[in-house]
Design brief:
The protein is an alpha/beta fold and 936 residues long. It is built from 39 helices and 29 strands. The strands form seven sheets. A seven-stranded antiparallel beta sheet has the order 14-11-13-12-16-17-15, with helices on both faces. The N and C termini lie far apart (85 Å).
Length: 936
């Protein structure tokens, strides 16, 4: 009997309350990228191996199965469950590069792209390169035996594994890189080892089975367990460690791995080739496959893929006018020798010269150009899926043929689409060079006919692929989608081996049951997502999870895709009339106030990573506008009309807060915040700014209008910061050295960029009109440029008034117009650098880096994982946990560095950054002023 109540009670004590049973978190944390929708009975958020061991102990004690979740980007349902879902905190992202860069040790929580960023300066990368590598974590990449676009079979997770650290269901840790761990395991788990070796003997003694395994693993295959390990290795530890590759979290927990590094060739070239139809393209792929030394990847995208992609910004500049039926092949070639690369490209051109393209072929050696080509390919799944009909589900499949069978396999697949009613909506894309095809269908499963069509297509496809000797799942993992068809592909003898593997490692079926091995032959068509419509851009979301990396509230409350899923579930429940649904809806509505709205920074950084550009911040912003009370609207109107008075009130509050600001009062302020939502005090709380803002007419030929933000007019640096001068004094100093006059708008005390009025559209429009009048006068109708000194305010003002005035963020103005007129003596110290989120959206990261490099000869250290610090203006004071959570990894990163000073471009962000790092963060203008003098 499964005892979830007992599990919860024990887990609550063991894990400091990090076990959740409320419906909101169970539902939202259960969301992942596959087509399945399961709601776990409990959710754990775990931080360490010792906690994983305790979770296994509770699982055995209360007979409650566990399912482990990394980034939730898997597509076959392997990270879904209706049992206990185990999510991982940010404590699993450690990495260490071997001294000669031959290998890298990675915690299961490391995002694949981050591993490659660490290796890039060394000319290396990890082998697996799934399209989701910017979001997928190593735990998932290894558990799925991910391959991808360039790695094929040779450099997948299985073939680049050097060592692994796993926790078995009985709580035992096996670290194959540790001789003592291995020796201990051989003694304590002799029976398990003997069973594994018996399986090997069973295979070795069956010549037919041996040949089947050898043949099927020459192409990509993730159907079932990696039973090739029983043939490829004789040492039991090697066998066991490789069985964990592709095991989809069903044999134990993968804590970390050591992967061999592969060369990341310095020079690359790409080509876009267009053909009249997919069968002609398949013929070209057969030719290209003979040049595996020259071609690292050949990706195919059919007409449906290209048509879906063409509607997105900038794609029309890449793709020509596509005719119906046309297909594209994206080729990549690479080499460490530029001359040899050009020879490779010439060789490829010559090989396909007899196969005319339908449009002029595009060849490029410019990485900035072909990176955008790859962006289309990597985003094809969410891009194409977003074009689905309202109310339909997104089903993605992943099959593989031997190259010689690719053309015929595509033809048979198209016949199945026609047979089952998907001819006009299915799309095909994939890793053509490996014979690996993905396809997407979007049936409306609420309609019985389409449900049966989907079911029959999956069955017929599985039979068709098996008849070719191909793989029903090539790289996405078996999951639930293909679990009923493992025996069909492999046959009875090999399937029996798969079942025995599961029994050896999980005799009580407590580790991710119904994944890979399932007795339920219909599980592939159960619990499929049928999302309710919530309107606007959000209906296009396929919950891929690409957005989560940038979200400051991810794993604190909800991520962007979880917020969208929550709104969908509220909409679904709202359409039902039974008591249970009404009760759940009330719970979700109550919880949404904090989880969906208050804890969203509304930074819109999710939009930057979303392949189709969804700005999930609009969910929270829409809620705030809709829920704005008449009183708050009136208050906003009064603030706009009497802004100088409101600002003086803020200054008075700052003075009072600084008088009270001590450790004990700060602690009390946090308690009060939890109880009655009052603002918290911060150690790095700014002081009141008393600096007088007056024009500085030095008699120079050039002038600039200085729109100093209301925040910076209120704030002077905290006493713990390196430079105590208000930023206005610093900017005036720089302008004087650069021989530029400073003009303050006459009504400087009464202006605001308008961001504070975001929740009040009418007031915001009135404020915009007011700003236009003030700036028109100050700039003499556009004669002078305008500079603004806070990144968030710059974004707001530039966005709203860029067509009327020449407006610059302070950092951009410093680089373009100030630094060129100064004599700079750079320091030798390493510094930290953070570009606030709104400035990232303006494309100012390079500007900030260029400024920093002008000012120091030392390293400029950036924590690239902090896309947004979560301070979000007032939220740093009223929802402090958001900023604290968002800077968790930032804090750890700078604690482990030799940095003791940092620079940014947002005074509010700098409060949170200073709090997190325990050292001074100030606007980069302070750094430039400290290292510069006037040119002679």
């Amino acid at each position: 009997m499964q005892d979830y109540k007992g599990f919860y009670k024990a887990a609550f004590k063991l894990f400091d309350g990090r076990v959740y049973k409320d419906y909101l978190r169970r539902f939202c944390y259960g969301v992942e990228a596959s087509c399945y929708s399961y709601v776990p009975k409990l959710v754990l958020m775990l931080k360490s191996e010792s906690e994983i061991i305790k979770a296994f102990e509770l699982s055995r004690k209360f007979n409650t199965p566990l399912c482990f979740r990394g980034a939730g980007t898997s597509l076959s349902g392997q990270s879904s469950c209706d049992t206990v879902l185990v999510c991982l905190d940010f404590c699993w992202d450690h990495m260490k590069v071997n001294s000669d860069a031959s290998s890298i040790t990675l915690g299961c929580g490391v995002i694949g792209e981050n591993a490659n960023k660490a290796l890039k300066p060394l000319g290396k990368k990890i082998g697996p390169d799934p399209a989701t590598i910017a979001a997928a974590q190593i735990g998932g990449i290894v558990n799925n035996n991910s391959s991808g676009m360039c790695c094929g079979v040779k450099q997948n997770s299985y073939n680049t594994l050097k060592s692994i650290r796993v926790i078995l269901g009985d709580g035992t840790i096996l670290d194959s890189s540790d001789a003592l761990s291995v020796a201990s395991f051989k003694i304590s788990h002799k029976e398990l080892i003997d069973k594994v070796l018996n399986l090997r003997s069973e295979i070795i003694n069956d010549k037919e089975l041996c040949e089947l395994i050898k043949r099927k693993y020459k192409i990509k295959n993730t159907t079932g367990y990696s039973i090739n390990a029983l043939l490829d290795y004789s040492d039991p530890i090697d066998i066991i460690t490789h069985l964990f590759i592709g095991s989809e979290g069903t044999l134990g927990f993968v804590s970390s791995v050591e992967l061999e590094c592969v060369d990341d060739e310095k020079y690359k070239a790409c080509a876009l080739l267009f053909y009249d139809d997919i069968l002609k393209a398949a013929k070209v792929v057969e030719i290209l496959a003979k040049f595996e030394d020259e071609i690292s990847s050949a990706e195919i995208m059919d007409y449906g893929s290209l048509k879906a992609a063409s509607k997105f910004k900038g794609v029309d500049q890449i793709l020509p006018d596509i005719n119906e039926g046309e297909v594209c092949i994206l080729i990549q070639s690479q080499n460490n020798n530029e001359k040899l690369l050009k020879e490779q490209v010439d060789k490829i051109k010559n090989a396909i010269k007899d196969y005319p393209t339908s449009h002029k072929a595009k060849f490029s050696f410019d990485e900035s150009e072909f990176a955008n080509w790859w962006k289309i390919r990597k985003g094809i799944f969410p891009i194409a899926a977003s074009a689905k009909r309202p109310g339909s589900s997104v089903i993605t499949e992943d099959i593989c043929f031997e190259i010689k069978d690719l053309g015929e396999g595509i033809k048979k697949l198209q016949e199945l689409f026609d047979k089952h009613g998907f001819k006009d909506s299915a799309i095909i894309f994939g890793h053509a060079l490996a014979g690996n095809l993905h396809f997407i269908i979007t049936p409306n499963l609420s309609q019985n006919v389409e449900f049966q069509n989907f079911s029959n297509l999956v069955k017929d496809m599985s039979i068709m692929v098996s008849n070719f000797g191909g793989s029903i799942k090539a790289e996405h993992g078996t999951g639930r989608m293909v679990a009923p068809f493992v025996e069909l592909e492999w046959g009875a003898k090999a399937y029996a081996i798969n079942k025995k593997i599961k029994e050896i490692f999980d005799p009580h079926t407590l580790i991710n049951p119904d994944v890979i091995i399932s007795d339920d032959k219909d599980i592939f068509k159960k619990n499929i997502k049928q999302s309710a419509l919530i309107g606007n851009e959000f209906d296009e979301c396929v919950e891929c999870g690409f957005c989560e990396k940038n979200c400051p509230s991810n794993k604190l409350t909800l991520s962007p895709r979880q917020r969208i899923a929550l709104k969908r579930e509220m909409q679904r429940l709202g359409s039902l009339n039974d008591k249970a649904s009404k009760k759940l809806l009330k719970e979700l509505k109550d919880g949404a106030k904090y989880f969906l709205n208050e804890s969203c920074a509304a930074c819109s950084m999710c939009e930057e990573l979303c392949p189709i550009g969804i700005n999930t911040a609009n969910l929270a912003l829409n809620e705030r506008k809709a829920n704005a009370s008449d009183f708050s609207k009136k208050t906003a109107e009064l603030a706009k009309a009497n802004f100088s008075l409101a600002l003086n009130g803020a200054k008075f509050a700052l003075s009072a807060a600084n008088l009270l600001n001590s450790n004990s009062i700060r602690k009390l302020s946090f308690k009060a915040n939890l109880a009655i939502k009052t603002p918290v005090l911060k150690e790095y709380l700014p002081r009141k700014n008393s600096y007088k803002l007056r024009d500085k007419n030095y008699g120079f030929d050039e002038s600039v209008v200085y729109f100093s933000s209301c925040l910076n007019r209120a704030f002077a640096p905290n006493k713990n910061l390196n430079d105590k001068r208000p930023i206005q004094e610093v900017f005036e100093s720089l302008c004087k050295k650069a021989k530029i006059n400073v003009i303050y708008p006459e009504q400087i005390d009464d202006i605001c960029c308008g961001k504070i009025f975001t929740n009040y559209p009418d007031t915001k429009e009135l404020n915009k009109a007011k700003n236009i009048d003030i700036l028109k006068e100050a700039t003499e109708d556009g004669k002078y440029p305008v500079v603004i000194d806070h990144g968030a305010c710059s974004y707001e003002l530039i966005k709203s008034l860029k067509d009327r005035f020449e407006i610059y963020d302070l950092s951009e103005y410093l680089l373009k117009f100030i630094s060129t007129r100064l004599s700079i003596v750079p320091i030798n110290d390493a510094i930290g650098l953070y570009t606030m989120c709104a400035s990232k959206k303006l494309g100012l990261e390079d500007t900030m880096m260029s400024l920093a490099k002008l000012c120091t000869k030392g390293q400029v250290i950036v924590h690239s994982d902090t896309a947004c610090c979560g301070f979000a203006g007032y939220k740093g004071f009223f929802t402090p946990q958001l900023n604290i959570h968002a800077t968790t990894k930032f804090k750890r990163f700078y604690k482990n560095s030799a940095i003791n000073i940092g620079f940014s471009n947002s005074s509010t962000c700098e409060i949170g950054l200073s709090e997190a790092s325990s050292f001074s963060w100030q606007h980069i203008a302070y750094l430039l002023d400290s290292v510069s003098i006037s040119q002679k």
